[in-house]
Amino acid sequence: MKFLETLQNSIEVHSDRNAFFINGNHYTYRELGTAITAIRVAIQKEIPLSEKYVGLITNDDLETYAAIIALWFEGKAYVAINPIYPKSRNEEILAQTNSMFVMDSSPSPYFEKGFKVITTHTLDMVDNNDLSAPKKVEPNDIAYVIFTSGSTGIPKGAPVSFKNLNGFANAIDNNLSFSLSETDRCLQMFELTFDMSVVSYLAPLLKGACVYTVPKDSIKYFQIIKLLSEHQLTLLIMVPSIIHFLRPYFKEIRSESVRYSCFAGGKLYSDIGKEWNACIPNAQIINYYGPTETTIYCGGYLFDKEGNNKEENGVVSIGKPFDNTTYLVIDENNNEVEDGQTGELCIAGEQLFPGYIQNEERNKLVFFEKQHNGKSLRFYKSGDMCYRDQDGDYMYVGRADFQVKIRGFRVELGEIEYHVKKKLPGLDITVIDLDDGNGNTELGLAVCSKEIDLKPTLSYLKENLPPYMIPTRFLFVDKLPHSVNDKIDMKKLRTLF
Amino acid sequence: MTNDEKILTELKEIFIETLGHDNFELDGNTTANDVDGWDSVTHMMLINEVEKKYDMKFSLMDLMSLERVADLVKAIENRQA
């Protein structure tokens, strides 16, 4: 697999350069390589070949990143497990992937029972610059699994194959004039449970550049600015919500070092994009687009800093698909619509994931085969409503369902409702996305009842859902507003909060 | 009561009001990790409330180096001076 070989070569060639900056410490590629080798030895000794999915506790340290690469070099997938999320949800995730083994660098293991834990920070490290070659992997073997919110109350596992990731690694180099070198200093602000983390560490490591991670227990947007100003970062990959938080302080930010400012995972508005570009005057902003199911991102748009950008309702265009990807905009009957007509965006190509784990029902809904330019392609229905303009650029219009983005995280409102209903049986409830006034999304919970104490409900939610899925605004009403066709009138309901 | 203690008491009131609960201890060593609901969103709200209460405006430089509550107390005192 080409990207694994490139990665091995990069680690060996750049041995004296810094690979990571984590919690105030630099780590060289040599140190990274040494850790990878030690972890590989442990994997070979402890984990049978048949075990393909291995849990990974996502700490912010060298061992955790080394474990990812060690698993890849051994032909295995990592299933990211964030220790700050509820244990019940994490166990549910590892049950879906049938994982028995967990890599963990925590001082005391996160899972006390139920799993075989490989402790990665106490292994014997033998300083050695020669990595043994990655094992041969099959293109359809899985590299990682990302779990996203599922409207049935159970998270959905989206596996991404080595072929998918290899396609992605090629595509970022071949599209949108994006090019890193060993002198770049790159931000990694994402939890490893979120797939934008993958590009944030993988793209730099393939080129011998340095990855700067944002400390976990911190207010991210200020830590980003701190890293930016103290280390003159050159690449920023972020979700747009970060610049919404920073907007009041834009006039105090001036960073000449940034070469690329990449956005994905949310709507980038052109006005704030332009203001942000003034803070980083030498940077090319790129608005990338793509669901987790088509490997991190699969297309994008080069932002014009003068502000001459294509937009729809103020949202910057998502541009064109990568050269390995095909887009199709369809109506309800899976027929392609004309340019300018809004429909659901469907995606085919090298980066298309093989299908959700243990979820045939869902897979039947999201995939379809269609002839396109004389070839039969397998398309994924993204749930994103878009149209294509006469130049072939795509515009993002909105969602086709009840999925919302909270600080970049995909949230199915139905999953939260499922858990609320368990605690408030018999009450009519709705969870809704609200604008917090700063351009970010927060969650509201509307309950059809007189005012009741929601504390027990909220603590129940906190035991079962990650923090970003907990509603922060509350409303008690006699009746939920309904539209003529008997659906809950979300627009009206929003005005009541 | 020292000035530090006075500010801490006032901060605790702001935190209770903003976060909607008083289920936490607030001392110099407290970080966002120790307080339920103190996250990236509420942090902005807390900062706004602190600025209102003390009639001051923090710079980005002040806010970048806030890690523990003691840093916030110090930032307030620096602005008051």
UniProtKB/TrEMBL annotation, chain A:
The record's Gene Ontology cellular component field reads:
cytoplasm
Residues annotated as signal peptide:
none
- SUPFAM superfamilies registered for this protein in UniProt: Acetyl-CoA synthetase-like (SSF56801)
According to the entry, every stretch annotated as the AMP-dependent synthetase/ligase domain falls at 8-356
The record, for InterPro entries, names:
AA_adenyl_dom, AMP-bd_C_sf, AMP-binding_CS, AMP-dep_synth/lig_dom, ANL_N_sf
Q: Which Pfam families match?
A: AMP-binding
Gene Ontology biological process terms, A to Z:
amino acid activation for nonribosomal peptide biosynthetic process; secondary metabolite biosynthetic process
User: Which regions form coiled coils?
Assistant: none
Q: Name one GO molecular function term.
A: phosphopantetheine binding
Record protein name field: Amino acid adenylation domain-containing protein
Organism, as annotated: Flagellimonas chongwuensis
List the taxonomic lineage: Bacteria, Pseudomonadati, Bacteroidota, Flavobacteriia, Flavobacteriales
UniProtKB/TrEMBL annotation, chain B:
Highest taxon above the source species:
Bacteria
The residue ranges of the Carrier domain are: 2-80
Task: Fetch the PROSITE patterns from UniProt.
Answer: CARRIER
Concerning InterPro entries, the annotation shows: ACP-like_sf, PP-bd_ACP
According to UniProt, the name of this protein is Acyl carrier protein
Species assigned in the record: Flagellimonas chongwuensis
